[in-house]
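Dear colleagues,

For the upcoming journal club I promised to circulate an example of a predicted protein-ligand complex. I picked one with S-adenosylmethionine because it came up in last month's discussion. The inputs are reproduced below in full, followed by the predicted structure.
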Amino acid sequence: MKDFINIATVFSGIGAPEQALHKMGVKHNIVFACDNGEVEIKKDVDEIKAEIASLNNDEANEYIKSIYSKSGKHNYMKDSYFANYDINEKNWYEDIRFLDGKPYKGKVDILVGGSPCQSFSIIGKRAGLEDTRGTLFYDYARLIKEIKPKVFIYENVPGMLTHDKGNTWKVINSVFDSLGYKVYKSLLNAKDFGIPQDRQRLFVVGFKDKNVNFEFPQPINLTTKFFDYLEANNDVEVKHYLGKKGFEFVTNPKYRNRARINPEIIQTQKANQQFNWNGDFVFVPYEEIANNEKILERAYVSEWNGRRGVIRQLTYRECLRLMGFSDDFNVVVPNVPAYRQAGNSIVVNVLEAIYKKIFEAVNIYED
Ligand SMILES: C[S@@+](CC[C@H](N)C(=O)[O-])C[C@H]1O[C@@H](n2cnc3c(N)ncnc32)[C@H](O)[C@@H]1O
């Protein structure tokens, strides 16, 4: 019996699964993580696979990294990941398509990942792993087969269930059922797990041990509101305050579905939420910033709901808080990728609740 958990993640992003263990104070070792930072490479996938076929694992990893570095695009996801988690370069992979799970067989307790949703648009209709070939979901399922983790957690948007009139889910569901795991599926909403964000996601949890009895966590009452997650207005950089055009856009009733001001529960955070004035905004009464010349220089002062004041975007620290990340999470990337990374993540509190139930159901520390 060991006293830590071996976790591996793919589509790792800013590591919500790792952050959940960190917040819970659960000792863990990161076996590997993998994320290409949404960088596209031009070279043919099959050609690369042929090139790495004769290389050992470390050589293949280095070769794939060299291809990515030649793309000229920067992997900001890797920057965020390395600034927050304990991982060696050789355990970081750029691209799941070239990640061989076989060297990790039996070495992972929990494998977590949610493939990007654009990847299921080409799934066929026959139902079977081969039918998902060419999608990133295929590689996720392949890794489960190769690694055989004790438990896997898969996350995706609810649209996966209805895409292509339900055919996509039929195929994906049949693949999950064919892995030889005991599989549980449920839709969970972040607002039912302590975070005031209306974000529903599909979670699939699978156990290698088929005798396990698992139950998804039950909803808990929400005791916090949007306002509890905000930074002090005077601490917020002035760039976040809206000028005239922005103020008029977000207060226009026509755009209420796109932009909301001072909601109790925010809408689902999106990767591009802070552009074109989409997402959730904070109204700050004039009295609160009346002495702050810098803000008044930049911000447009007008009326909203019968009160005079200014409006600002959420800061990325606030976005991270509303995804369940604690304030010790280091932000080391520029504005645009910072918002994008927060919006793409999994709500950490939901993962914490799922982990608790997993740890009740299975002895995760068993060798
Ligand atoms: C929806 S996000 C998941 C974010 C993550 N769950 C988190 O906690 O932040 C999907 C991620 O898949 C990554 N990705 C896309 N294609 C990939 C590939 N071929 N190999 C590895 N990662 C990939 C993207 O960069 C993105 O970070």
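Two points we might discuss: The chain has two domains: 5-222+330-361, 232-314. Residues 106 and 263 are 46 Å apart (CA to CA).

See you all on Thursday,
B. R.
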